[in-house]
Q: What sequence folds into this?
DNA sequence: CAACATCTGTCGCCGCCCCGACATTCCGGA
DNA sequence: TCCGGAATGTCGGGGCGGCGACAGATGTTG
């Protein structure tokens, strides 16, 4: 996922339907292009909710709360995690275009996990009571929503496979390939990587040392640079 | 779950969206548990596909094949796995009401995993070309399909959490609680359990020995009986 | 510039679990 | 009924990785 250095501090309330927004929404619902979202459908979805802005570290929702709404992320990255204050396990990271909180909302159960903004995040918040009629009225949007959910499911299934029978070195290499931006840089602390993989910081460090000594990456303060992509891919052994 | 008996025929073709229907949906979405697509939903989809029967051990589809259709399981259990002939990793097990193969089909990619019948399986096979019109025409079905997919996603997320920082003993205990039938029996070989958890048969055996010595279960040939559910739950440490 | 918080890099200990090997038990088919 | 395949039960060796500890490096704040 390419991360854009967008400008911070936005987030106004009611805005006129924006073509930019429409384009973004159209892109956000999966890579499939045989079903096009028409402008009026987009407007309907936007009209059913409102945009919220979150500072880094703040929560969109917490596990156990009543699930009254779902969120479509427009900008930024959100970390979905579960656990108490002492130890938390990261379930997934969600970027622009991802839908979060909809599972609990559709099933009318408390949120199963917490959602915390990693950086500056803006998201479209849609209440359950207002979403269902829209989805009933506009099957195209329902299908788009479906494809988004299924894409998330596939990513999670890949993660299960990544956790099974894979050494920490392979997992780290795979994560770096996933998370690198267009300049081949990954801006994550080693502790953050460890929490993403459900492993310990020390093991991540050891794996990075291995990759460094083989010339695949360079490591710095809060930044890792991919030097030799093929070498990293070989270490990931995918 | 009590089901409204007086519910008339759902959503016929060109009728305007029904708010009543939306409200009913909102109420009925809770507590769907393992029953994902319900029999009446299946009936509505029957016209778009045809039933296929599979003997134990045969495949509904294999990873890498072109994804032309999705399947809704009507009876039996299907194992979704990935890997070559030497070593395979089980991604999930799917029972009656589950939808499989839809991810790849909607995204128009080859199947990401293989689906093999564990026991005698009958499933409704639906081609993409015929499914999409039905979903467009009947938002109720589309929403149920959506909820089915999201439920699968939640189960997979739970599995991720189960793999992180959980000892084999805890995982085995959790699986037994999940998989036990109404008589408290689990009909799986220890090797099958091991493949489900991505661990080794010996470790599963050791964990079962532990549970047996603590009086939580009894073990037999291809069968495990839950004797003390609370004890097993304690061992699972959920 | 100094004090502080955070992050990186390493080491050693120890426990869980993978793996190979083997004996034993159970079940189904000829 | 007998036999072969499959499943269970157990042991020991070895390795990966969690955990605590600590030093040095790097931003950050007053």
A:
């Amino acid at each position: 996922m390419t991360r854009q250095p967008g400008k911070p501090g936005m987030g106004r309330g009611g805005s006129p339907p924006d073509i930019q927004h429409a384009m973004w929404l159209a892109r956000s619902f999966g890579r499939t292009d045989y079903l096009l979202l028409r402008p009026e459908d987009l407007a309907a979805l936007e009209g059913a909710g409102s945009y919220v802005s979150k500072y880094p570290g703040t929560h969109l929702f917490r596990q156990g709360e009543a699930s009254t709404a779902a969120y479509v992320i427009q900008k930024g990255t959100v970390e979905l995690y579960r656990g108490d204050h002492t130890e938390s396990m990261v379930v997934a990271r969600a970027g622009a275009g991802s839908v979060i909180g909809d599972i609990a909302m559709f099933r009318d159960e408390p949120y199963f996990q917490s959602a915390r903004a990693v950086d500056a995040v803006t998201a479209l918040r849609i209440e359950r009571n207002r979403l269902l009629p829209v989805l009933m009225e506009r099957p195209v949007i329902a299908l788009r929503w479906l494809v988004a959910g299924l894409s998330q499911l596939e990513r999670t299934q890949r993660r299960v496979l990544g956790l099974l029978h894979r050494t920490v070195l392979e997992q780290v290499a795979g994560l770096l390939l996933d998370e690198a931006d267009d300049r081949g840089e990954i801006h994550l602390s080693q502790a953050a990587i460890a929490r993403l993989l459900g492993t310990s910081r020390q093991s991540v460090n050891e794996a990075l040392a291995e990759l460094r000594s083989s010339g695949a990456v360079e490591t710095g303060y809060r930044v890792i640079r991919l030097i030799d992509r093929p070498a990293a891919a070989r270490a990931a052994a995918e």
